[in-house]
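Structure ticket #2291
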Amino acid sequence: MSDLGWLRYLWSCGLLILPILAWNLAVARYLPPQFDAAVFDRDIPMLVSAGENALRMVVFVLPFFMTLDLTTTGQHRGLWLFIGGAVVYRE
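Resolution: structure written out below.
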C-alpha cells in the first residue's frame, strides 16, 4: 500500500469491525431483560465499570489506527479466517 499519510487509515482493520458491530446493534434488542444495561451493571462498582468502558473504547478505536495490508499469503489466509469466524459468530 502506498504511503498516503492519514488516508491510509481509511483502509484500516477498523473496517473489519463495522459489520460485526452493526450485527450486534441489530440484535441487541432481542437480548433477555437480564442483559439490559440497567440490570446488568447494577451491582458492578463504578470504578470497575469505568475501567471496563475505557478499555472497551480502546479495543474498538485501536483497529482504526492499524492499516489493512493484504500483500502476503498469510495475510489473505488471516482475512479468510476472520471472515469465517464472523460468519460463525453471526449464526
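Closing remark: The radius of gyration is 17 Å.
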